[in-house]
Amino acid sequence: MSGRIVSGVLAPHPPHLVYAENPPQNEPRSEGGWEELRWGYERLRRNLARKEFDVIVVHSPHWKTVVGHHFLGVPEFSGLSVDPVFPNLFRYRYDLQVDVELAEAMHDAARDAGLVAKMMRNPDFRVDYGTLTACHLAHPAWDKPIVAVSSNSDYHYFSDDYGQEQMLALGRATRHAIEATGRRALLLASNSLSHRHFTVEPAVPEDMSHEHVYSHNGYLWDMRVLQMMREGRTRDLLEAMPDFIDQSVSEAREGCLTWMLGAMDFPDYPAEVHAYGSVIGTGNAVVEWDPERACGEVPA
Amino acid sequence: MSGGVVRGLIVPGKPHPLLAADRCAPWAALRASFDRLRDELAQVEADVLLLYSTQWLSVIGHQVQADPGPEWVHVDPEWHEFGSIPYRLRMDADFATAYRDAATARGLHARTVAYRGFPVDTGTVVALQLLDPERRLPACVVSCNMYADRGETLVLGKAAADALRAQGKRAVAVAVTSLSNRYHVDVVAPEDDRISSLKDDEWNRKLLELLGEGRLEDCSQLAREFSAQANGDQKMKALWWLAAAMGQHNRYTGRVLDYQPVYGTGAAIVDLVPSAGAAGALEYDEEDTDYYVGDREVLAGGAATTTAPVPAACAVAAPGVVRASGAPEPVGAYPHARRVGDLLFLSGVGPRQAGSDAIPGGPVRGPDGEARDYDVRAQTEAVIANVEAVLEAAGSSLAKVIDVTVFLIDMDRDFETFNAVYREHFETVQASRTTIAIDALPTPIAVEFKVVAAAG
Asked: Which pTM was predicted?
């Protein structure tokens, strides 16, 4: 049987959500906070529980590379992840498996597509917190292997359009590899929307009276792109992406969302927006494209 | 000896000289230059290695590493095929705390981090492995805030100098940064490595020409243009930090130990030794900043980082706050005075001149921390004039002073002269007075008054 993508999810990775959820893997404990987003991830998990999938493929902005796209290529990793930006919130023990066969297939497909690609074979490598956070929030059981893909940022030297082209090519290569290996894959594109942070933190990090989107402009852009997603207008979204990135400092610049849209061949059916909320000023949404519900209608 | 930066270094933080020096001549040359510098540093009398690494990015203000012994096996996210770097570092946790406090006192948001397993960045690990593998000196590392502008980074550098002075520590300050930071984006064999563009190479060489002449402050002021032209590493914030920590001048003996490509980026090793005889000319074309008051509200049209420090409290209509245009700006988040009931409580008043911050009678130490001769008579006269300016702004006067606390940094040397000047102004006032000898004041002054007076 040919492999397929069972769902594609815009799955942002604020460590605050893991912190607020108080999973046993995370050392600091909180009083809660960011409930709307965490409830959104709960709705996503309920949907995913009805699906069968073999592997989670995640693209994270926090494994940054410049020379090519890198793929985890060691079967198992375990260790402690400490967020370098929010070490007070995220100190997380992980133990995960990697689908090396699929990773190698993606690597080869990327190379065949003319991209620079590299396997990461160093067993001492520390998996980035973006990958861990997105995977934990989408599927905390950790009973599926993952394939983690680095965020290549050589587009900084050229243009966002150039970066989008690269990520679309990587997405197509990802789809081909999934189909060729017969995997049923869940894709996680782990970026936020508008991405301007506050540079100060309240004394109690989960104090929600301090939380809002950094700027009205960021909010307007977030709503605009979410509406496109709800209406299944992913090609329009791609057209708007350079302006969105430029004007809202969007983390979509790191290519995760474009990669996933490329892998899913631009879904033209409505996405389900499970939640939207801000985390220390950045706009975050949990959004799911489910091919099995491609005939759904846009909510009123 | 008073504390300060005794030596400034600029070094690259890529792992190639440490892990892959044998792969091509440029990386081997960098390793050899690092080794030479390491040997030289072993002869330098210093108390701490003070690092600013462009690879340690922060969002929430600035972070200072305060774990006394960070230990891990590091793998670079990009260059993982070169191998792992096991490390056990030695950090000066006490100084880290002092640095955090000094940064906070200048309005920055800063915190120390001391978490087992904290991911120390490649630049820090590489620099410390190559410069001080024996951990002869404890280190202190501060992060590079991804949103910080020039003003915020200058303040961070000045806070480093504040903390060194306060602790009386001598530091080798290390800016861990590339110059041009444009990688090759395709796979390039090490033996084919070169600077990724001729333009980047030309800009690197221009910057190094200035640094070789000891013109650090000129380079700091050139950083924006350099970054725009040559894709400077993190906008060359490391130069802003280093220049501010070292006193914002060009009086150094500069030495470029090496300049090589590292996968297309410009990697230079530069040594700067404070020297009165070196190039002194400055071309100041950018504003200076002493105090940080938060993000710029660009969309609102306001600029919060200012040359004239505006304490955050300005935005709050606190009752009884007194601000005097004729007095020097405070160096922290406090007003000139506060009225409560019928009493005026003045913040500590020194001799700095309003507007220019010049110190009548001269500063007690130079920009490098060296002691200087000064005129305590002129300073005391200036203090009293400033006290008068604040009192008059509050509708009071010298005649209404009730109590004075005087701080002198050298009682033996200065008391007699100070006392004579004081008598000329206060003999008829008959305020109660206490005179105290202290080690230092926040700015290079010899005398400060703390005054309580009757309100107008």
From this structure: 0.79
